[in-house]
Amino acid sequence: MEIAKSLQQIPSSYIREILAAASDKNVISLAGGLPDEKTFPIDLMKPMLESLSDMTEVFQYGATAGYGPLLEFLGDYYQLPESHIAMICTGSQQGLDLIARAYIDPNDTVVMEAPSYLGAMQVFGLVQANIVTVPQTECGPDLDALEVVFFEQSPKMFYAVPDFHNPTGVCWSLETRQRVAELCIKYNVALIEDAPYRELRFSGDAIPLTSDFCPDHSIVLRSFSKIASPGLRMGAVTGKRAYLEPLIKVKQGADLHSSVPMQALLLGLLQHDNFELHIDKIRALYKTRYQKLFAELQRQLPETCELKAVDGGMFVWLSLPECDTFALAKTLLANGVAVVPSPVFYPAHDKAKAALRLNFTNATPDELEEAVKRLAKVLQEQVG
C-alpha cells in the first residue's frame, strides 16, 4: 500500500537518528532536548499515585477536552479570561498537530522564524502548508520582514516560540512581543505561541506572553514535559472558545481523550505544596549546567565561532564559519559528542546559516567539560 503523498514529502527526523547513535555509552550527547531525570518529581507524585487506586472514575472514558478538575485548576493557574478555555492533549506536540489539522488546508500559508522548531515544520508539512520564514534577530523575529510577509501573503497563522526559542535560545523582548501582537491583530493572523520552556527561566525577570497582548488572535501551547516528566505525555492548549472547539472535535476523532489517570496525577502534582520549590530546583540545576557549558565554550572554542548568552531554556546556538554542518556533526559523533546541525531547523536546508544546537540540561558538569573538549578539538581542525 502506497503511503500518502503528504508523508512522502516529510524527511526522516535527523534528531531521532542522531539520538539513536548517541545512545552509545562512549558518546556524550548535547543533541536531544532531554530534561535531567533527576528533576522528575516522583516524590511529589507519590501521594496521588497511591490515591489513584481509590479513584475508579478516572479509569473510565473521559471528556475529550480533559479531566474536569484539572481544567478548572488550569483556568485559575493560567488566569484565563472568561471567554477562554483549556484543552488537555497528549503532550503539547499533539496540540500543535490538532491545530494544523483543524485549520490548515493544503497551500495555506504558515509563517515561522528561521531557524525554527523541527517538530512544528514536520506537523505543518504533513498538512501540506506553505511554510514561509522570516529571519530571527537577538530580540525575536525581524519585524519589518514579518510585516511584509503578513501584508503580501495573508498567512493564516504565525507559529513562534518566544521564550527560549528552540533551537537558538532567543527570548523575545517585550517590545517585540507587543509589536508582533499588533501585527497579528492588524492583519488578522492567528499567533500560535508555543511555550514549552517558559518556566525554565534562570536569569532575569519574566516577560508577559505575546498572546497576552492579542488574546483573541492567539492559541497557546503549554507543556508539562520539562517541569514534570516527558513520559506523562501531558500538555495543554489554551485560547478563546471559538478557536479551541474545532480542536476538540479533531481530538475526539484522534484519540477520544488523553489518559485520565495521568491527568489526575498531573493535577495532584500541580497542587502539591512543594511544586513551586520543585520548579526552583530545576531552574537552579539548569543554570549551573548552562554556566558550565557556556564557560567551557568561551574558554576552548576558536575565535571564529560565535556564541550568544541565554537566560533560560535548554539550548545554546553556536554559530560557525561557513561549512558543511552535517559532515561536521558526523565527525563530531565519531569523536564521541553528539550535536544537531543547523539545516534541520530550516524548511530549506540550503538557506541555513552554519551553526550547531547544543543542549545543556542532560549532561553532568564533567560530561559537559569533556564534550566541549572534543567539540573544540574537531572545530580547530575543521573550521579553524
Outline the structure in words.
An eight-stranded mixed sheet has the order 2-9-8-7-6-3-4-5, with helices on both faces. A four-stranded antiparallel sheet has the order 10-11-14-13. By secondary structure, the protein is an alpha/beta fold. It is built from 13 helices and 14 strands. Helix 7 (143-153) runs parallel beside helix 8. The radius of gyration is 21 Å and the shape is globular. It has helices at 5-8, 14-21, 42-51, 68-77, 92-103, 118-126, 143-153, 174-186, 241-255, 260-270, 275-300, 325-334, 365-382; strands at residues 28-29, 84-89, 109-114, 130-137, 140-141, 157-160, 190-194, 218-223, 235-240, 306-307, 315-319, 337-338, 340-341, 355-359. Strand 6, helix 8 and strand 7 (190-194) form a beta-alpha-beta unit. It starts with a helix and ends with a helix. It folds into two domains: 5-30 and 276-382, Aspartate Aminotransferase, domain 1 (Alpha-Beta Complex), CATH 3.90.1150; 57-270, Aspartate Aminotransferase, domain 2, CATH 3.40.640.10. The model has no long low-confidence stretch (mean pLDDT 95).
Low-confidence stretches: none
- The percent range for helix content is 40-55%
Mean pLDDT: 95
**Rg on CA atoms, Å:** 21 Å
Task: Give the strand order, joined by hyphens, for the main sheet.
Answer: 2-9-8-7-6-3-4-5
CATH topology of the largest domain: Aspartate Aminotransferase, domain 2
| Head-to-tail CA distance between termini | 50 Å
Tell me what portion of residues adopts beta-strand conformation: 15-25%
Under the CATH scheme, the architecture of the largest domain is 3-Layer(aba) Sandwich
Global structural class: alpha/beta
Helix-strand topology string: HHEHHEHEHEEHEHEEEHHHEEHEEEH
Report the count of strand segments: 14
Oligomer: single chain
